[in-house]
Amino acid sequence: MLKKKVRINDVGVRDGFQIEKNIIPTETKIALIDQLTATGLALVEATSFVHPKFVPNMADAEIVLREIQRRPGVTISAITPNIRGMERAIACHTSGGRIDEMNLFMSASETHNRANVKRSTDESLADFKIMVPMAESVGIRLNGCVSTSFGCPFEGAVDEGRVMAFAEKLLELGFDGLTFADTTGMANPAQVERMMTNARVRFPSADITLHFHNTRGMGLANVLAGIRAGIDSYDASLAGLGGCPFAPGATGNICTEDLVNMLEDMGIDTGVNLDLLLAAAVKIPGIVGHDVPGQVMKAGRTMHLHPVPEKLYEA
Ligand code: ZN
Fold it and tell me: Could you tell me if 43 and 177 are in contact, meaning their C-beta atoms sit under 8 angstroms apart?
């Protein structure tokens, strides 16, 4: 039986903006996050503590976190790949830029981990061992993300046992939540349902999120497969922002408003006000300076009806 309520997390300001070539003004990000947190989303991933040389669009992490409005019930999260980033995050958190949750990530595939964070998976786990108590000491919740859980753009299939072993290690290290990410859009619905059914059995009480990219058009189908397996938290990105640094031109994350439109049509409660979300989505092409993949923002929500053609019943 399908769940009747799911959590939607928007990661567009981070996963989407990080690959944009143009620098997005800080005030624009702040206004957009404030608009997103008013829609009923469960979580907004606001920024990333990475070296500005690698990701210039995230250089304003501290200002964004200090200036955004806070709303009860909405988690503000940030990501970081390393200890230096965690030090910055903690300094930010303890000086007026509160972070509710830090999302730390590693790849299940050795090659992708090296390409993405320039170290081995063992080195990533060793870093997490240092980073977890740092976050815990200042009361920041921790989510651990296993990237390339459903496939690696360099190695191809990733062994499920390996993915689940990393997930287990993250839980042992003290992470409060787990994300399985389809970083480059290689998952298919049969695989998602099978793997997540197994994950639910192996980690019965874990707080699990799925992160899909729509690289090959299977994103929303993968969400339904995840829901069928009992997973009730999903990352998505406003207007379908995002992409893949290893596949230039690839479609981005699954689109938040398309996801909400589908689930609400199916009678699954997301808690998100779709009209408010669409009002934010339509601003995105102007902000990034190019077309975006979102479909409902162009077609209108399902029950956006059109006038009946004139003279329809005349002979
Ligand atoms: Zn992603």
Answer: no
How far does the centroid of ligand 1 lie from the alpha carbon of residue 15, in Å? 6
Residue with tokens 């619905």, as numbered in its chain:
189
Burial of 242 (0-12, 13-18, 19+ CB in 10 A): buried
| CA distance linking residue 288 with residue 286, whole number of Å | 6
**Could you give the CA distance from residue 300 to residue 304 in angstroms, rounded to a whole number?**
6
Q: What is the pLDDT of residues 212-259, one digit of tens each?
A: 999 999 999 999 999 999 999 999 999 999 987 666 677 899 999 999
pTM over 0.85: yes
Pick from 219, 220, 259: which is nearest to 238 by CA? 259
- Set out the domains of the chain in order of their start, with CATH numbers: 7-299 (3.20.20.70)
Q: How far apart are the first and last CA of the chain?
A: 49
Question: pLDDT, tens digit, for every residue of 86-116?
Answer: 999 999 999 999 999 999 999 999 999 999 9
Q: How far does the centroid of ligand 1 lie from the alpha carbon of residue 90, in Å?
A: 23
Residues catalogued as catalytic:
244
Helix axes 160-173, 189-202, angle to 10 degrees: 40
Separation between Cα atoms, residue 190 and residue 180, nearest integer Å: 15
For the chain, the average pLDDT equals 95
Q: Is 315 helix (H, G, I), strand (E, B) or coil?
A: coil
- Nearest by Cα to 71 from 103, 96, 34: 34
Report residue 58's pLDDT band, with 50, 70 and 90 as the boundaries: very high
- Going by C-alpha positions, the residue among 91, 93, 116 that lies closest to residue 105 is 116
Under a CB-based contact definition with an 8 Å cutoff, are residues 33 and 14 in contact?
A: no
And the tokens for 95?
A: 């000086």
**How much distance in Å is there from the Cα of 146 to the middle of ligand 1?**
11
* d(CA 78, ligand 1 centre) in Å: 13
Whether the CB-CB separation of 253 and 12 falls below 8 Å is answered with: yes
